[in-house]
Amino acid sequence: MTEKDTVTNLAEKGPRLKINDILRAPFVTAVGSVQTVRPFNLAERAFSVCMVARDIARRIGHDDTRLMKYALDKDLDAMFTGGTSFDSHSTHGYRGKSREPSRETPLSSRECAIVELASTMVDIGFLNVQGLGRHAADTVDQLIDTLNNRVGLFSSSYPELSDAVGATIAEMDLGNYISES
Based on the number of CB atoms within 10 Å of its own CB, is 43 exposed (0-12), middle (13-18) or buried (19 or more)? Predict the structure, then answer.
């Protein structure tokens, strides 16, 4: 697989959103079927993913400008689907309608990895604090496994990500979710 094969094409990311669609983000729930103490809205989740991705990028000395824009934008397809799911973590394209072509330069696979890891970390953090019941606990366990697997997978190509993710998790006060294997 080449770098070109793993690059996210921003031109294929779904429908072009109007500002009134985007401004609905605080009213679209991002938790799917997991019961929580309070709703986790799309705007809150998008901002959190953006800030965690920014932190990881800065720890490895990576320019975070395009990455932050993508992290904010990546879940906006939920405006059409009615929310995101903790089970559907993917930064490799949007489901649903086609967005107008973009002139943006595609993200590198390392940038996609950072956003994907940040997305999972945000969901773990939210459900750790706000999740209710066995289903929420099981979902957190699944997300931790997913995070560990992704860190292992991405670390083979980007070894600096493991330490950066570990340091960000420590500051997020989530505990040590990075497996030692």
Answer: middle
Where are the domains positioned within the chain? 10-172
Residue type, 131: G
Torsion on CA atoms 149, 177, 159, 111, rounded to nearest 10: 80
Q: What is the pLDDT of residues 128-150, one digit of tens each?
A: 888 889 998 999 999 999 999 99
Q: Could you tell me the fold of the domain covering 10-172? A: Hypothetical protein af1432 (1.10.3210)
84 token code pair: 């995101």
What pLDDT is stored for residue 150 in this prediction? 93
Entry pTM: 0.74
Could you tell me if 34 and 127 are in contact, meaning their C-beta atoms sit under 8 angstroms apart?
A: yes
Q: Give the number of residues written for the chain.
A: 181
